[in-house]
Amino acid sequence: MAERKAATIGDVAREAGVSRQTVSNVVNSPSIVKESTRLKVQAAIEALGYSPNALARRLRTQRTSTIAVKLDPYSGGVSGVVLDRFVHALTESAAARGLRVLLYAARTLEEELRHLDELADAGEVDAIVLTGTSRGDRRAARLLERGVPFAAFGRPWGTDTAAHPWVDIDGAAGTRSATRHLLDRAGDRIAFLGWPEGSESGSDRERGWREAMGERTAPRLTAEDGVAEGQEAVKALLPNGIDGLVCVSDALAIGAHLAAVQAGRPELPIVGFDNTAAAEALGISSVEQLPERVAAGILEMLMGPEGNKVVAQEPKGLLVEPRLIIR
């Protein structure tokens, strides 16, 4: 017979029809919970055999000198190195402050939410760093509800009022700089190759191109991220349709470069985004995101300029301007 899985705080919350925070309050601070609610939660605890961890309760009021961040699944291909650089930079910067980094993996949003609840329940970390933020991010809402200190690599899209600290790359500034460079060097018809609608960071990068172009007109192309996709999207414009091209990623820029070579325009100026080793090897200019500055900014927001203890958090943000690398 299979061993019965131990009940979690989430199981108790569902059984009692309350939030996880209410269950946590019943376990740790029962005096602040209405009696009828407390009795309902205690009945669920007894029915499910839930056993709160005394060590976890102690850890809530003690420092662990540990921060957690998700390790994204390996995606391969050209792109995807920025978050790897960020995790390395965060680990190195944290170590310099006497802190450890705990990595957790999650392939879906629901899986990540479960991990966040487990980290909060166990008191294993002093703070959590989110990556890959989205509009109406449920992870941020969950951590705010649980009262867990956290900061995000990525802005709270869709709102001008932040509820938590965040640091992000100013993608619009990067593509604006790239577009102005090509306007000065190549001519007025500087096209843009972006992702399909739905990408917040992609829209931000497109905005920088539009701002730099002003009243000038040039094609705005769309492709899923990938070398082959970029090559297919651009070849219809060549050989003489554009003076230059700004791309939302290095993968698309490499595809565009291959299309230009096949069309007899290997000199077509192209700028990618991410400054990957592949773009460098092919001599393609690119916008470098500087995730090391993001990591340093996040730790400063969480713990001050030099400290290693979470301080009172201000719900503010910081945009890091990327660097244009010309080749």
UniProtKB/TrEMBL annotation:
According to its UniProt entry, this protein's organism is Glycomyces artemisiae
For this protein, the record's InterPro entries field holds:
HTH_LacI, Lambda_DNA-bd_dom_sf, Peripla_BP/Lac1_sug-bd_dom, Peripla_BP_I
Q: Which GO terms describe its molecular function?
A: DNA-binding transcription factor activity; transcription cis-regulatory region binding
Give the matching PROSITE patterns: HTH_LACI_1, HTH_LACI_2
- Gene3D superfamilies per record: 3.40.50.2300, lambda repressor-like DNA-binding domains
Report what the protein is called: LacI family transcriptional regulator
Q: Which residues cross the membrane?
A: none
Q: What sequence ranges are listed for the domain HTH lacI-type? A: 7-61
PANTHER family given in the database record: HTH-TYPE TRANSCRIPTIONAL REGULATOR GALS, LACI-RELATED TRANSCRIPTIONAL REPRESSOR
Q: Say which domain of life the source belongs to.
A: Bacteria
